[in-house]
Amino acid sequence: MRSACPWRTFRWYKGQKHYSGTYWSATMRDHVIYESRLELSRWLFADFDPSVRGIVAQPFLLKAVLEGKVRRHIPDYLLLTGQVPVVVDVKPLSRLSKPEVEFTFDWTRQAVESRGWKYEIWSEPPAVELENIRFLAGYRRDWLFSPEVLEELQDVDLDGVALGQVPGCLPGRPELQVRSAVHHLLWTQTSSRISTDRSALRTC
Predict the structure, then answer these.
(1) What string of DSSP letters covers 60-96?
(2) Among positive and negative, which fits the CA dihedral 42, 83, 139, 197?
(3) What's the number of CA atoms in the CB half-sphere (13 Å) around residue 60?
(4) What distance in Å separates the CA atoms of residue 91 and residue 68, rounded to the nearest whole number?
(5) Neighbour-count burial of 56, counting CB atoms closer than 10 A to its CB (0-12 exposed, 13-18 middle, 19+ buried)
(6) φ/ψ of residue 79, rounded to 5
(7) 13-39 pLDDT per residue, tens
(8) DSSP secondary-structure letter at 163?
(9) Pairing between β-strand 30-34 and β-strand 86-90 as defined by DSSP bridges
(10) pLDDT tens per residue, range 102-118
(11) How many Cβ atoms from other residues are within 10 Å of residue 118's Cβ?
(12) Are strands 30-34 and 21-25 parallel, antiparallel or unpaired?
């Protein structure tokens, strides 16, 4: 399932109201697709989540006969975690109350949860949290950072230290190299010595 191809791919057409594209995922170590900026935001949160071990876009087709009609639905994402799989549908908050959307998501939830999986409907996330995760995602490519600097940073207690003061903890290293390395550690969440206050990250 982790290496499954999308059931469908995104479409490009003149005048479309959403932005489709591809995103390089640190979790998957490959490019993945998204059909809107809102879907991309869910990708970012999933890629940042250490409990998520695999992410599949457009993972499968659900089909059921309901009220005498054949219903079909392709969820947006499947998140593979250390516990149960999580099936995700992405929809703007303003559209969740539409009857056809409610109907589709209701029977999708029943189908998913009947397997013991989890079902999630994702709408607009908190703006500040999204902005901080998007910022840290610029530091997600691990091969761009010096292993020696990363190791040295993890040996320093940085809890409560402002980002602007971190380079002073490694005086023998270039400031920009240290600053970018600490952002990578914040992205990977591999060090308990570094505070991850997302709400204040961009202002430090």
Answers:
(1) --EEEEETTEEEEE--SEEEEESSS-EEEEE--GGGT
(2) positive
(3) 12
(4) 26
(5) buried
(6) -105, 125
(7) 666 666 788 999 999 999 988 989 999
(8) G
(9) unpaired
(10) 999 999 999 999 999 99
(11) 16
(12) antiparallel
Q: Cα 98 to chain center, whole Å?
A: 26
Number of other residues whose CB lies within 10 A of the CB of residue 136: 23
Q: What tokens were used for 194?
A: 């570094």
Confirm if 195 and 160 have CB atoms less than 8 A apart. Answer: yes
CA distance 176 to 144: 13
Nearest partner of 125 among 100, 159, 90, judged by Cα: 90
Collect all residues with Cβ–Cβ distance below 8 Å to 187 and sequence separation of at least 6. Answer: 26, 48, 136, 137, 139, 140
Q: Which two tokens stand for residue 77?
A: 């994402």
Predicted confidence (pLDDT) per residue in 75-96, tens digit: 999 999 989 999 999 999 999 9
Q: Which residues of 151-172 are buried (b: 16+ CB within 10 A; e: fewer)?
A: ebbeeeebeebebeebbebbee
Q: Report DSSP state, residue 144.
A: G
Compute CA distances 109 → 27, 43, 103, 112, 128, whole Å: 26, 20, 10, 5, 29
pTM metric for this prediction: 0.85
The CA-based diameter of the chain, rounded to the nearest angstrom, is 72
